[in-house]
Amino acid sequence: MKTDPLLKPFKIKNLEIKNRLMTSAHEPSYAENGMPTExxxxxxxxxxxxxxxxxxxxxxxxxxxxxxxxxxxxxxxxDEIIPWLKQLSDxxxxxxxxxxxxxxxxxxxxxxxxxxxxxxxxxxxxREPAHRAFPKEAEDxxxxxxxxxxxxxxxxxxxxxxxxxxxxxxxxxxxxxxxPATNKRNDExxxxxxxxxxxxxxxxxxxxxxVGPDFIVGVRMVADEDWDRGLSKEEGLEIVKKIIDTKKxxxxxxxxxxxxxxxxxxxxxxxxxxxxSPHLDFAGEIKFExxxxxxxxxxxNDVATARYAIESGKLDMVGMTRAHIADPHIVKKIIxxxxxxxxxCVGATYCLDRIYEGNEAxxxxxxxxxxxxxxxxxxLIKADKKKKIVIVGAGPAGLEAAKVSSERxxxxxxxxxxxxxxxxxxxxxxxxxxxxxxxxxxxRLEACNDNNVTFYYNTFATxxxxxxxxxxxxxxxxxxxxxxDILDEGNEYACSTWDIISGSINIEEDVILFDDNGxxxxxxxxxxxxxxxxxxxxxxxxxxxxxxxxxxxxxxxxKKFIENDVTITINKRLKGITKDGxxxxxxxxxxxxxxIVNKNASQIVVEHGTLPNSDLYFDLKKDxxxxxxxxxxxxxxxxxxxxxxNQNGNYFLYRVGDAVSSRNIHAxxxxxxxxxxxx
Length: 679
Hints:
Layout: E1 10-12, E2 15-17, E3 21-23, H1 38-49, E4 54-62, H2 81-93, E5 98-104, E6 121-122, E7 136-137, H3 140-159, E8 164-169, H4 173-176, H5 193-196, H6 198-211, E9 216-222, H7 233-245, E10 251-255, H8 262-268, H9 280-290, E11 294-296, H10 303-311, E12 317-319, H11 321-326, H12 330-335, H13 350-356, E13 388-392, H14 396-407, E14 411-415, H15 425-428, H16 438-450, E15 454-456, H17 463-467, E16 473-476, E17 480-482, E18 495-496, H18 497-502, E19 510-515, H19 520-531, E20 535-539, H20 551-563, E21 567-569, E22 573-580, E23 583-589, E24 597-601, E25 603-607, E26 610-612, H21 615-621, H22 632-636, E27 652-655, H23 665-676
Parallel strand pairs: 3-4, 3-12, 4-5, 5-8, 6-7, 8-9, 9-10, 10-11, 11-12, 13-14, 13-16, 14-15, 16-27, 18-25, 19-20, 19-25, 20-21
Antiparallel strand pairs: 1-2, 17-26, 22-23, 23-24
Helix pairs in contact: 1-2, 3-6, 8-20, 14-16, 14-23
């Protein structure tokens, strides 16, 4: 602890942060009517319990009503937010963590067609593609009132006993004045950098006057938009100096890039398969040039990189935001010498993709995140009575069931038909960009080994094999099998995406892939087909492509398909397949018309999710105590109750994950956790 750079305190003015780890500002979309109510508070409190030095709330809290929420943003312009934030701050302070909040006017990064239906603002009438609104050019009276709004919002944050604020100038209203890409004005707020920064410096001045000299004020700012139309690195450094010269700001949180499209956003917030910590060196350059406190976060997912960032002097505070969504107890585990038990962030970006699609943030393999009221991040309470638990299947659902059940103190046996654990993840990780998903398996296997779980691989479990173990409880986690039997005719001529991904069949020279699932298997198979050099057409009945994939993860696939001339056809449905000599003929219709067309291809692939592999479950069901039934009300309320429907039954029986229905990794793991945590 004495020598670890991550655990050294950092002092700004009179505020001492106990270590160098922070979460950068982000909106998990847990707010209710713009207020950080219980779910929001417990989310941040868990990070405080886990030992984090600074938890930065909001991403961002909006200062004006004409900056309507687009990611579940907090409403910093309302007085009623003060007691909610004060409770959050006070409870985090009880654990020694500091709490700040990011405030903003979103500018054009929102839309007008909800909330109060007010016009969207920007420096000029330049549309942001991502949010699609055509903004109004801010008038003098807009600028005056928004300066006041910032000052009043900052005062509210101070009254809420927060430790500081961070002003957002990164794809939002303030920096729209800085950038040549968005500032096309013909007045005193355009031209040289002194003019372009005039509004921002007025905001900083008003905020400092409002909160006094001691309250911490920082700016999260873009210092290089990394494109020929935008703010250059040289201009960014000049803006850095202008902000520092005000002597009104205490730290800078540096970022690089622009965020007006999904493609550009992924360069700022990299997804799976992209480089980690891509802007760390850049932030270090700003630190070196400015000799000023610098914070930074951008895909710093592992402790070793965070430690290097501090030790090398590149940063003063290092953000591990997605990493703390995966495991809020990182600091506690570092302190206790248990870094190897940190649940890894696998880079899936399920969290952010959900936010940008209008849903709440969830971690792909930590279902406790955002559910702290009902679900523990760590299993610390042993069961009253030790039981024997038999689990069939060692995919994500089965491994989670084994991990949690063994942590409860039960004797756990796992039967797995293949020669290794992983289930469908062993297919997923055949793609180079998704190799990090192995962390979902490896982390659970290590925990299972620590808790003496017994694994039997290459074992096709039957009812007889299972019952020889005399189990108290059986959990069926046998997953699913591809569902290609969906056509009016010619199902036998189709192959599945699993066939393509696994390499069990050869890929032909021209391929039609029909995907009405719209999730990762179709995209992964398509990428493999393209990488083989084959001609590909993807057909979907949806009105837009791959609806189950969020915008950030969509980018890498879209790039691949565009560069390789993949044809993507929407609003069409594969009806059947017939033979046409040595080739196949796809019968293609639509939900919108009776028109039918035929297209020839060497190979036709169908992606329609999975069917549950559930025969074993039904073999065991009639002799179970609960007849397979689950008390849904109890798992919804966070305390699972076993129910007895068969007094002559010999064991409890549950099935989880894709053995129930075709869903995703998060659902599978969540199934197991909320049953097994109370067994």
